[in-house]
Design goal:
six-stranded mixed β-sheet, nine-stranded mixed β-sheet, 13 helices, Nucleotidyltransferase, domain 5
Length: about 400
């Protein structure tokens, strides 16, 4: 990347076409800040906003992986860098310029500031309603550079998890924003409870309310608590924004409410023209694959006689039809691709190794393990009714 003009004026000139700049911060790492940033940008795009996503995490850029952009590279046109675009979001990250995801970025402060200056001044962002800026944890070079270069940041969202050790660092992020005259739009408490993948029940697994208490104590809005749903990690690993594929899940609905809160804080906003809402997987006709031996669910996934591919109507909670397929030869990595080609959305099994589960996630297929050895219709019927009881993974190798 090269630039002939490192003045702040070039940043301000380029940013005139971006109506709002929102910084996503966290006091600590590992709180799901990038997940929130990615899904915030996706939700804005779904709502009809012209959205951009800038990843300024120089040393650990994760946005390309979370949006499936590892093989993409920005363009170059009329002397400017052109962001990669996916699902209506313009995306830029240092990770898109690295030769390999394994390459470390060994830079000190001035080099990081110059890179961020180029991301703001030398990139053809075009007309944007909102530019979401995903910052690394803490209050160091990257968020400071963004605030200093932009001059005016329209707001910041601080992400935390419920437990005290994470929530106390929210204070530092809020104080950072106040020092730099950045309005705090609010605090998001992530990983607040666990969503059961079978029945959707949310159960507290960490101490609750840390984010809310700190927000109230510091006098800033509390935007919401996002529960921990295993499909959030699966979506990120598969390179998809969770809110697109699971739009009606508890976590996605809360993300949507957070976006509404952010929109309501913008008095100059014009009503958006919503894009066609993506139909969630729960609303689609699903195909559930069940490994079968002796007419019942097979405890050992990779060694079953056949697969029952059961098509269901999730909205009506009923089975539409069943198709039996002879199992292909047992070869590493074959079954995920084979079942994906058959249209499977979900696999219900007695046991499956972790590596196989990861391969299914890469193919966009969710996996439930520990299911009992009943007939395919009984197992699928229990799943649709929310009463499927699962035990230990009987074949976790």
């Amino acid at each position: 990347m090269a630039s002939n003009d490192f003045s702040n004026q070039s940043v301000l000139d380029r940013m005139r076409s971006v109506r709002r700049k929102i910084l996503v911060l966290s006091g600590k790492g590992g709180v799901g800040k990038s997940t929130v940033a990615v899904n915030l940008a996706a939700a804005l795009a779904i709502a009809g906003r012209k959205a951009g996503l800038l990843d300024v995490d120089i040393h650990g850029p994760s946005v390309p992986t979370m949006l499936g952009l590892e093989a993409k590279q920005p363009g170059f046109e009329d002397g400017a860098i052109v962001p990669v675009e996916i699902d209506g979001i313009k995306v830029l990250s240092l990770g898109l310029f690295l030769r390999s995801p394994d390459d470390p970025v060994i830079w000190r402060g001035p080099m990081k500031m110059n890179a961020i200056r180029q991301f703001l001044a030398d990139v053809s962002w075009g007309e944007l309603d909102v530019l979401v800026i995903d910052s690394p944890p803490g209050t160091g070079d990257e968020p400071l550079s963004v605030c200093q270069l932009l001059g005016t940041v329209d707001g910041a969202i601080v992400v935390t998890t419920p437990q005290k050790v994470s929530a106390v660092d929210v204070r530092k992020s809020i104080s950072f924003c106040r020092e730099l005259k950045v309005p705090v739009l609010g605090v998001v408490e992530n990983m607040s409870g666990f969503v059961c993948p079978n029945c959707g029940t949310v159960t507290a697994v960490l101490r609750e309310g840390g984010g809310r208490r700190i927000a109230e104590d510091m006098g800033v809005p509390f935007l919401g608590s996002i529960p921990l749903d295993p499909r959030i990690a699966e979506s990120g690993d598969a390179g998809r924004a969770y809110i697109r594929d699971f739009a009606d899940s508890p976590a996605a609905r809360i993300m949507g409410e957070i976006v509404k809160s952010i929109e309501s804080s913008d008095p100059g906003a014009v009503p958006p023209v919503p894009r066609e809402r993506p139909v969630s997987k729960e609303e689609q006709s699903m195909k559930i694959a069940v490994p079968v031996s002796d007419g019942k669910l097979s405890m050992h996934f990779g060694h079953c006689e056949r697969f029952a591919l059961v098509e269901v109507d999730p909205a009506a909670k009923k089975i539409v039809r069943r198709e039996d397929l002879e199992a292909p030869p047992h070869e590493p990595g074959l079954l995920p691709r084979w079942l994906a080609d058959k249209g499977a959305n979900l696999v219900i099994a007695g046991g499956m190794g972790r590596r196989a589960q990861d391969l299914f996630a890469d193919s966009g297929i969710r996996v439930i393990v520990g299911a009992p050895a009943g007939s395919p219709e009984a197992v699928v019927g229990d799943y649709l009714a929310g009463r499927l009881e699962t035990g230990e993974n009987v074949c976790d190798h």
